Amino acid sequence: MKSFRQAVEANDHAAIEALLAEDVVFTSPVAFKPYPGKAITAAVLRGVSRVFSDFRYVRELAGEDGRDHALVFEARVGDRAITGCDFLHLNEQGLIDDFMVMVRPLSAAHALAEAMGAQFDRIAAEAAGTAPAGEPPAQSR
Question: What is the pTM for the complete model shown?
């Protein structure tokens, strides 16, 4: 999905959010339950951009119908190198309605869980509209 990849690579959170369906479901690699809804998904993605450094997509795969995409990425979480994949599904309007992330290795997944846990109060406040989303991230996601 070229538009999503470009938005992420440009660190353009408004463009990323515009590509999310209202009913998007975000499945985290480190949380047990999925996060339903555009506000929480956008807030989680902003949180990830504050946690990841040296983020880059290295491969893109697309399903035959053009509605399923896999974007393989590499990044760092603190001193841990992480490899992962964003699995995206587009609804009939071309918006992301399913967003699942998987990461490896386990030590990096643990580092990601810890770093995102430290962000969770801010993420929840941003999703609820009670905190500004405007602080710039450490590195682009």
Answer: 0.90
